[in-house]
Structures are given as structure tokens and as C-alpha cells.
Design goal:
207 residues, alpha/beta, Rossmann fold, 5 strands, 54% helix, 12% strand, binds cytidine-5'-diphosphate
Length: 207
């Protein structure tokens, strides 16, 4: 059983993915953390995320332990992640890890940008979770403020707009809903409401 969840930053896909994994006893992979971990490794080494060789090296030598480092959530790490994620060689280097993860029993929930379109095109259920730019920036602002009281809303909004644009316009695996994905707009909905809707969808898909 594989559930693929794609969508832009702070759309609520991560929360939904964790809850679905717990509900169905599935493993969960936040694939954004893979790109973020590469970005973090580059920044810590003083490298340039815009440099092709640096980006590909980071993806090929990625230490999965870095996925759990809280620093992956930093905003500058998210920007670095989105830069390196636009490169085909980087995506290829990380693809097999994601497919192997998904293939292990009893199945998995993966969230990211290209799960339904590239990583797991045969998933049982594909969701595209989205929300307005403003709703998403508000959520990310609140999240970042917990660790940094000086964070500025407009900076978060601009970073998010820039990242949306880069992720949607790149030529390789752009952020786009799969043709057979169910689209959910979470702008004015809480996490419980969305979760219950998806549980109903899973039930009807399994029948
Ligand atoms: O948590 P947030 O939604 O802000 O982003 P993320 O899921 O942690 O992903 C960080 C960046 O990694 C994104 O902006 C994408 O550029 C990239 N990414 C990707 O290209 N493909 C994926 N499957 C997951 C993330």
C-alpha cells in the first residue's frame, strides 16, 4: 500500500502524511528532508548550492542520518534544497532510495513534489495538497518563530514565493498534480478535517 502526497511548501502534506502512516501502520518518508539534508551538508561545508558538481556530490554521498537533524528545517536550508532539487543528476541520485523505501512491506506514505508523477506512479492513492500562498506563509512563519523570535513574515512570504516558482517551473520533475491525483485545498481547513476526508478516500479505494 503506497500513498503519494505532493504539494507546495507548508500546504499541510507533512502532517497529513504522518497521520496517515500512523493510522495504517505504514512507514513514512518526508522526501523533502532528503533534498534538505543535501542542502544542509553543502552549507555546513561552506559550499555553493548553485554549483552543479557540489550538488551532485552531496546527493551521491548523502548520509541518511542527516535527515533527522533539526537544522534541516531552517529556511536557508529549504532554499538550498530547492536549488539543488532542480538538477536532474541530483534527483536521479536520490530516486532509488525513495523507491526502495516505498517498496518495503507493509508499504509507505511518501510526501514531496514528484511522488505521484515520478517516484511512485503506481501508488494506490495520490493526493495533491495545496493552499493559498498567504495561508502557507502564515503557517511557516508560526513554525519558524518557535525557534527564532526575530523571523520576519515578509521574508518568509518572499522565500516561499521564490521557492514555489522555482519548484513549479523547473524542467525536471516540476511540482504538478498527477493526472489521477485527488486535489485538496487546505487554506481554510484544519488538519483533522482533511485527515478524515482522506481516510474516507482510502476506504473507498480499498473496497
Ligand atoms: O517542508 P516544505 O514543504 O517547505 O519543503 P520540503 O518538502 O521540505 O522540500 C524542500 C525542497 O525540496 C522543495 O522546495 C523542493 O525544491 C525539493 N523537493 C523536491 O524537489 N522533490 C521532492 N520530492 C521533495 C522536495
Amino acid at each position: 500500500m503506497i500513498i503519494a502526497i505532493d504539494g507546495p511548501a507548508a500546504s499541510g502534506k507533512g502532517t497529513l502524511a504522518r497521520r496517515l502512516a500512523a493510522r495504517y501502520g505504514l512507514r513514512h518518508l518526508d522526501t523533502g528532508a532528503l533534498y534538505r539534508a543535501c542542502g544542509l551538508a553543502i552549507l555546513r561545508a561552506g559550499g555553493d548550492p548553485d554549483d552543479a558538481g557540489t550538488a551532485v556530490d552531496a546527493a551521491r554521498t548523502l548520509d541518511p542520518a542527516l535527515l533527522k537533524d533539526p537544522a534541516v528545517r531552517r529556511d536557508d536550508v529549504g532554499q538550498a534544497a530547492s536549488k539543488i532539487a532542480a538538477r536532474n543528476e541530483v534527483r536521479q541520485a536520490l530516486l532509488q532510495y525513495q523507491r526502495d523505501f516505498a517498496a518495503q512491506p507493509p508499504g509507505a506514505v511518501l510526501d514531496g513534489r514528484d511522488i505521484g508523477t515520478v517516484v511512485c506512479p503506481d501508488a494506490l492513492l495520490k493526493l495533491f495538497v495545496t493552499a493559498s500562498l498567504d495561508a502557507r506563509a502564515q503557517r511557516r512563519f508560526k513554525e519558524l518563530r518557535e525557534s527564532d523570535p526575530h523571523v520576519i513574515y515578509d521574508a518568509v512570504l518572499n522565500d516561499m514565493r521564490e521557492r514555489d516558482e522555482r519548484d513549479s517551473k523547473r524542467s525536471v520533475a516540476p511540482l504538478v498534480a498527477a493526472d489521477d491525483a485527488f486535489v485538496i485545498d487546505t487554506s481554510n481547513r484544519d488538519a483533522d478535517d482533511v485527515f478524515h476526508q482522506v481516510v474516507d478516500l482510502v476506504s473507498s479505494r480499498m473496497r
